Amino acid sequence: MDIIDAHLHFAAEAYFDRIALAAGHENNAPHLQAAYREYGIVGGVAMGGNCPPSLEKGAYPPFLKYCLGLDEATLRNPTPELPFIARHLAKKECLGLKLYPGYIPFYIYDDFMAPIYELAAACDKPVAVHTGLTASGEGFLKYCHPRIMDEAATKFPKVRFVMCHLGEPWFEDAVAVLEKNHNVSADLSGILEGKIPDMAAFLRQKRFYVEQMQGWLAYLDDYSRLMFGTDWPLANLQDYIEFTKAVIPEEHWPAVFADNAERIYRCGFTVTKEEQT
Ligand SMILES: [Zn+2]
């Protein structure tokens, strides 16, 4: 089975080097490419750092495409940056935009976001949004609770939103938003961290959490809007595949592991459909 990693981070930063080692990886392109090959991952969607990223310098290797990350200054005053954002969105490697509420104190449904959403909708490229717990203790969860996406998705119905991390751990709220708003899909990244020494023991210990996730996804019963993602270098790739297989019913693996990402992000990665093992 070919896999698309619909959410990872790729940047030469000491922090990423450290967390990659903790997850049993190395934070560099040759290692990532080799690990992707080993696990049948045909490509990944790198969630951009703060805008403007150094893409002109060729920061991303060919097996990665990206969502352009928008920083606070750009969000507060988007108009002067619109040509820059439009230039990125016109590239085939740029699959969408990435917003960081919680890390940045703003509500994604605020009116000042309108020009950015209009541009994304005009280019028909999705807007990926961090939802759920933040990696650091400095942000405010009120900005990244999955319910924030309801107002944004309703107010800006032409925008295709991606709820990153399925709003973890607020799966009930995340699923309510997904059920109501068909312009919202979600990725399942950001749930694991580091290397899991014993997945069976992990799943036992987190049973309540995993059952909540499975239960609400079964309630939603729409696996066409869920995408596998690893949040690499935060988590071990093999662990993440194993965990996702444990959570998602097997008949939906081809959709969740690759087809949905290909359709939603239009990644352009070559997916071998006939292999379903
Ligand atoms: Zn992430």
Supply database-style keywords.
277 residues; TIM Barrel; alpha/beta; binds zinc ion; 8 strands
What can be said about this structure in brief?
By secondary structure, this protein is of the alpha/beta class. The chain is built from eleven helices and eight strands. The protein has a single domain (about 5-265), classed as Metal-dependent hydrolases (TIM Barrel), CATH 3.20.20.140.
Can you tell me about this structure?
The protein is α/β, with parallel strands linked by helices and 277 residues long. It has one domain (3-265): Metal-dependent hydrolases (TIM Barrel, Alpha-Beta Barrel). Helix content is 38%, strand content 14%. The chain contains 11 helices and 8 strands. An 8-stranded parallel beta sheet has the order 1-2-3-4-5-6-7-8, sandwiched between helices. Helix 5 links the parallel strand 4 and strand 5. The longest helix is centred in the last third of the chain and has 14 residues, at 207-220. The protein is globular and about 50 Å long. The relative contact order is 0.16. It binds zinc ion.
